[in-house]
């Protein structure tokens, strides 16, 4: 997806870091196991977060595994479990749509490359969509609605963000326990909103330059791709309010083995990401401002 | 009822101080001010009740019969609507507005929105209720715009002004010590602000937040 949802590494305990790496690598292995080697490229931090939050109360088993990225020293990976499989399925579904979007938007040789990739991943997508039909349905429905809003140059950040937020919210729909489902729905909805708005803020300068749609262009009319300090404050206040709602839901969830990592991600990671996006340092090389790669 | 010690997350051998600290930390987490007009407010207040009961049970059993004080008595009047509603409605559509407020409180946003849209003339209250619906939906940007319109149409209304102020300062939520916020500001500073603001809010409704943390 986007990679905005990640813990602040320096604030993790070493035990937590190893656990986190185990889930990330576990998700990557699970992708390969279920959808073949190429699907590994879809692995991302956002769905690692989802796999951890959806995990049950007890920790799953881990086992050391080697891979292309870690050929010599194996990593202690989380073994296959239901939350990891679900996260893998959803990673492929959403990843394929994102790929598909890039293929439609790109021009020239780049477009050809994306289209080849789309063709190659089509089988994996079909398999994943069949395993998670409700989620795949929600993704298709809301992305179609989002495309229509984009074409109409929708000036509402809330309305466009809502579509992406509903996609994430639908992840909770299979949860049998009513209270837990409500909590997860609220949490995922606001997480989706935050991701969408951060992505819009991150892309703003580029979109203004290229003329592509970005809700912030029509909501705030930024001069030369930059929001005025007052508009930035308004936008960040909105993010803060969503973050409050997310934090309120998070507090109500029962603890699980990943709670420390998840707390770090929510209370430190998301604010740090937001800070970097608005400071314009998010895309800069890792060695300058942030730790881009953990693994 | 669950074991009161496991509710508070302490062992039965914990000292009174440890029990009190665990209780305070949890109460800070699930405090109703963190769930202001929040769709999960009922779940948070259930938790709060559980914690209060657990703390009461422990203190009572430890004090062996001597009257133990109840948990936090915040005196928070449930939903902000019920508390502030009375006497502030304006002339036309009064009954309808009350109905819409009730729908919003019951989280029936679709119907509340439909009723509101059916009203032809848009006064300050109309904008305020529209803002409330968007707030509940989680559409924070739109909610803010409607609240600001309501407050500028009727600058004397405290409820509208409070809503704008609450939004402008970034609302309120529990964050652990050292947690950061999304505004890029100094968290410690914001926390004091929120606490003072929450205290004012509690006092208005007959409770008192800051002394009640201090005295227990």
Description:
The complex is a heterodimer of chains A (295) and B (216). By secondary structure, chain A is mainly α. Helix content of chain A is 68%, strand content 3%. Chain A is built from eleven helices and two strands, in the order ααββααααααααα. Chain A has helices spanning 14-35, 45-54, 82-105, 108-131, 133-151, 157-169, 178-210, 215-220, 229-252, 259-279, 286-289; strands spanning 62-65, 75-78. Chain A has a two-stranded antiparallel sheet. In chain A, helix 9 packs antiparallel against helix 10. Chain A is globular, with a radius of gyration of 19 Å. Chain A starts with 13 loop residues before the first helix and ends in a 6-residue tail after the last helix. Chain B starts with a helix and ends with a helix. Chain B has helices spanning 4-8, 16-30, 41-63, 80-85, 94-105, 109-117, 124-137, 140-153, 158-168, 187-204, 209-215. In chain B, helix 2 runs antiparallel to helix 3 (41-63), helix 5 (94-105) packs antiparallel against helix 6 (109-117) and helix 7 (124-137) runs antiparallel to helix 8 (140-153). With 216 residues, chain B is an all-alpha fold. Chain B is built from eleven helices and no strands. Classes of the chains: A mainly alpha (295), B mainly alpha (216). Chain A binds chain B through residues 156-159, 162, 165, 179, 182-183, 186, 189-190, 193, 219, 233-245, 247-249, 251-252, 263, 267-268, 270-272, 274-275, 278, and chain B through 29-30, 34-35, 38-40, 43-44, 47, 134, 137-142, 144, 167-168, 170-176, 178-184.
**How much strand of chain A?**
under 5%
How is the quaternary structure best described? heterodimer
Distance between the termini of chain A: 17 Å
User: Which residues of chain B form runs of ≥5 with pLDDT under 50?
Assistant: 66-92, 199-216
Count of runs of 4 or more consecutive helical residues of chain A: 11
Elements of chain A, N to C (H/E):
HHEEHHHHHHHHH
Strand content of chain B: under 5%
Shape of chain A: globular
Helical/strand content category of chain B:
mainly alpha
What is the N-to-C succession of helices and strands of chain B?
HHHHHHHHHHH
The helicity of chain A comes to 55-70%
Query: Termini separation of chain B (Å)?
Result: 24 Å
